[in-house]
Amino acid sequence: MQCVQVVKPGGLDNLKVSETSSRSPDAGEVQVRVHASSLNFHDYLVAAGLLPVEDKRIPMSDGAGEVTAVGAGVSDFAVGDRVMSCFFPNWEEGEASMERLLGVPGDHEDGFASQTVTMSEKAFSLMPKHMSFAEAATLPCAGLTAWRALKEEANLGSGDWVLVQGTGGVSIFALQIAKFLGCKVIATSSSETKLEKLRALGADEVINYREQPQWGRLASEITGGVSLVVEVGGPGTITESVRALRIGGTISMIGVLTGISGDVPLAEFFQRNATMSGITVGSRLQQANMVKAFEEWGLQPVIDRSFDLPQLAEAFRYQESGQHFGKIGLSLS
């Protein structure tokens, strides 16, 4: 079977297409024919050599495919089941812990840039019945992160305002989920073309943050203060995110695209009686909750474009460019 490996010291020029053998499942394991994956920022860090991994690690945390064999004692799945991966295979339910956050595919263990994988049955859940493999493969990281932030953590009600930043996978899923929950959405981007796409997807208000550098204050003026900010920028955006909040509002800290440390306007933060919650994807139980809701809603993920497995480096370069709107897919069919 074909796979892609990250060869030391990493970097997109060191993503190598290789041939390897599949492995029959041991007790408690399933073998899955992988049909699709999707790109996340975490995957980019691994591929670019910015997040050190073992030599010849097979990257990609997301995957969707069909169960082709099951080991002894497997109770969750049968041959033919359509499944998708879990970002944290050891986090079944409950609160996050260090033990539960280990075992990430494509990082701690080999991932889904491989036509066949053999893993614990706990590394998978059933995928939404109405979705294709390509669509389901966008959910395990970005979809679940947005779901946990809006549904599992926040106490949002109809009419609450949610602010989303940019047009990456988490932000687009957050917009979609917020609308299904009856919330209003205000979205930011520096591209007028993307702002129009955000409106078409359901955003009630949009702001060009390049033209409006104090976009947080503007968002507060437009909405009266937002209930939740889905924060993906980090230090470069946190000040305006605080200023966008209503009294008692929440920031879901999901990404640090502008750096790993920075200043928070603490006086404005506590004056708003605000809270900030770190969101690192979610548990297997939360993923099952998400799948059920997405099936009921008929939610359709937004996929910008897809690349074939041997084009993985090209796909990451496209991700680097920031041109995409929604998710970038990877086909292994």
Per CATH, the class of the largest domain reads Alpha Beta
Number of strands: 15
Secondary-structure content class: alpha/beta
Number of helices: 10
CATH architecture of the largest domain: Alpha-Beta Complex
Using the CA coordinates, give the radius of gyration.
Answer: 20 Å
Principal-axes shape call: globular
Please bin the fraction of helical residues: 25-40%
> What is the overall pLDDT average?
96
CATH fold node name of the largest domain: Quinone Oxidoreductase, Chain A, domain 1
Poorly predicted ranges: none
Q: What would you say about this model in short?
A:
The protein has 333 residues and is α/β, with parallel strands linked by helices. It has 10 helices and 15 strands. It is globular, with a radius of gyration of 20 Å.
How is this structure best described in words?
The termini are close together. Helix 4 (about 170-180) links the parallel strand 8 and strand 9. The chain has two domains: about 1-140 and about 300-330, Quinone Oxidoreductase, Chain A, domain 1, CATH 3.90.180.10; about 145-280, Rossmann fold, CATH 3.40.50.720. The chain is about 30% helix and about 25% strand. The model has no long low-confidence stretch (mean pLDDT about 95). With about 325 residues, it is α/β, with parallel strands linked by helices. Helix 6 (about 215-225) packs parallel to helix 7. Strands 3, 4, 5, 6, 7, 14 and 15 form a seven-stranded mixed sheet that branches. A six-stranded parallel sheet has the order 10-9-8-11-12-13, sandwiched between helices. Strands 1-2 form a two-stranded antiparallel sheet. The protein is built from ten helices and 15 strands. The radius of gyration is 20 Å and the shape is globular.
